[in-house]
Amino acid sequence: MVDRAIQVVVASLGISVVLFAYLAITEAIVRILPHRRQARVQPLLWMAPALAFLLIFLLIPLVGTFVLSLLDAGSSRFIGLDNFGAILSDRSMQSAIGNSVLWLVGLTLATVSVGLVMAVLADRVRYEGIAKAILFMPMAISFVAAGVIWRFMYDYRPPGAPQTGTLNAVLTNVGADPVTWLIDSATNNGALIFAMVWMFTGFCMVILSAGLKGLPRELLEAARVDGATEWQVFRRVIVPLLGPTIAVVATTMAITALKAFDVVYVMTNGNFDTDVIATKMYKELFSSRDFGQASAIAVVLVIAVVPVMIWNMRSFRRQEAMQ
Fold this sequence. Notes:
- The chain is mostly helical.
- It folds into two domains: 2-69; 82-322, Orthogonal Bundle (MetI-like fold).
- It contains 14 helices and no strands.
- It has helices at residues 2-32, 35-69, 82-89, 91-122, 128-136, 143-153, 166-173, 188-213, 217-225, 230-241, 243-258, 262-267, 277-287, 291-322.
- α2 packs antiparallel against α14.
């Protein structure tokens, strides 16, 4: 344990020394260059470590994954696009794609709408800071820990037996039967999404609250003076003005929904028709040992996420332009 701690400290100090040395060398090179070229070369040299990091840990693995998706299960024979045809015609993969779409719609709508309502309500109380801290607290919990917590919350025991799950204990205390939240296909995907909503609503609230603070107060007061109700002020003034911020938060949640894995893996392991694209990829890679189909699923996931990321970046730039 001590040796590992020493290694961490040495690695941290080594990275810092290398970084400072690189910056010193960069500035020395820039000073040697002609003055008119310094403004062009300096940003490139400063960005070089980040670009190298992206090349090594993102672009090269991405290209490698695409190459593997064109090979057979053992990565020994080129089969072209057969893996893509196989996964898209597989019923379990179709179910996983459908569940991912459900996550995309459900998680995004729930977190953004509830977060917006919380941001507006928290803005009107004197203990705003405390309220936001409490609502944001679930974000401090890891995905795995949240999955464990909600697995206990949804725990099921047969009727008549003591219920250890909080939700079923409440139901039985009011005379209802316990529900198999994570087994019944009518409730399990919604239950998983709700666990993520519990985690990310506070995050959405904080971002939307920051945008709400930047709205011109005179516009809101003018609408109230003109006789608009609070609902009309919210729907016709606050929501349109927060449009760019809402777009950024919504696309961020959409990316989170498409990448969902931890909560599903911990709570159901994809059983009972709860697989999403990420868990299906995991099973193909580590259970079936089919590197070709697992890579094809990863490529499909990237293709689904990239357009949302581009839209997120454009929405963020529009928001920055408005400010």
